[in-house]
Write a structure and sequence with these properties.
By secondary structure, the protein is an alpha/beta fold. It has nine helices and eight strands. The structure holds zinc ion.
Length: 253
C-alpha cells in the first residue's frame, strides 16, 4: 500500500488522429521513427545515429540514453512486434524524457491504451512471473509473525475463508511503501518498519487488512485507466475497526 493513491491514472485524453499517416511513414524502421521524432522535438539539430535493442526485462519498462553521440534505446521485448504507431508513441515519450520535456499527451494516451489491452496485460503478467524475482524475508519477524496477523484478520473479517498467499517482510524498512500485494507472485509484502517493539499492532493490522482487500478487489482496467483502489475497495476499507486511528498512526510513523 502506498501512502497516497497515486496508482489511479487520470482519465484518457483525446486520441491521436491517425489521418496524417503517409505510406512513407508506415514503412519506417524503428530507427527511422526515432530519428523523425528527434527532428520533431529538436528541429534545429541533426539527429544522432540510433541503436535499438529489444531486451527481456522483467517489466514493461524501456530506457533511452545518449552515449558517445549515439542514441541507445532499450525497449522491452513485449513491444518487439508492436505496430509502428506504438513505436512512434514510445519514441515521443522516451525522447521527451531525454530532453526533460513533457511528451505530447496524445502519444502518452496511445501508448497506455496499447499496454492496457487485455492481451498485453496478460503477456506482461506472464513476463513478470517468469523473470521477476520477489525478494522478501519470511513471515516470522523479530516482533510480529505475519502469518498470525493474516489469520487473525482472516477469521475476524473474512470468516477465515481467504486463501493465504505467500507473505513476507520487506528487505528494507520502507516508510513510503508500507505494504504491497503482488498479484504476479501472489505475495503480500509488509514493510519491515512495522516489525519493531514500539509499533502498535493496530497499525500493522490495518496495513495487512488493506493488502488483503487487494486480494479481494482486483485492479480494474478501462482504456488507459488502471484503478487499484476502487469505490468498493474504499468502502470496505472503512469497515476496518478504528480506521481513522489506524490512518493517523501511519501518518505519524
Ligand atoms: Zn493499496
Amino acid at each position: 500500500m502506498q501512502t497516497s493513491e497515486s496508482f489511479c491514472l487520470t482519465s484518457p485524453g483525446k486520441l491521436p488522429s491517425d489521418s496524417g499517416w503517409s505510406s512513407a511513414v508506415l514503412f519506417e524502421t524503428p530507427e527511422e521513427i526515432y530519428q523523425r521524432v528527434y527532428r520533431v522535438l529538436k528541429p534545429r539539430s541533426v539527429p544522432p545515429p540510433v541503436k535499438i535493442r529489444f531486451e527481456k526485462f522483467a517489466n514493461a519498462n524501456s530506457f533511452i540514453r545518449l552515449n558517445n553521440g549515439c542514441l541507445l534505446v532499450r525497449i522491452t521485448d513485449l513491444l518487439a512486434a508492436a505496430p509502428a504507431p506504438i513505436t512512434e508513441a514510445l519514441a515521443f515519450i522516451l525522447l521527451a524524457k531525454l530532453f526533460r520535456r513533457k511528451a505530447p499527451p496524445a502519444f502518452e494516451t496511445r501508448y497506455r491504451l496499447f499496454l492496457n489491452r487485455r492481451d498485453m496485460r496478460n503477456r506482461a503478467q506472464l513476463v513478470r512471473q517468469q523473470r521477476g524475482r520477489k525478494l522478501c524475508r519470511g513471515p516470522q519477524g523479530d516482533f510480529y509473525d505475519l502469518v498470525e496477523v493474516f489469520e487473525a484478520l482472516n477469521s475476524l473479517h473474512f470468516h477465515g475463508l481467504m486463501a493465504r498467499p505467500a507473505i513476507g517482510w520487506s528487505l528494507v524498512r520502507s516508510r513510503t511503501r508500507l505494504g504491497h500485494f503482488d498479484p504476479s507472485h501472489n505475495t503480500i509484502i509488509i514493510s519491515r518498519v512495522f516489525d519493531q517493539s514500539h509499533i502498535s499492532r493496530l497499525a500493522l493490522d490495518y496495513v495487512m487488512f488493506h493488502e488483503m482487500l487487494h486480494l479481494r478487489h482486483p485492479v480494474e482496467h478501462s482504456g488507459t485507466r488502471r484503478c487499484v483502489h476502487t469505490k468498493e475497495f474504499k468502502a470496505e476499507e472503512k469497515l476496518f475497526p478504528h480506521f481513522q486511528e489506524a490512518r493517523l498512526l501511519l501518518k505519524n510513523l
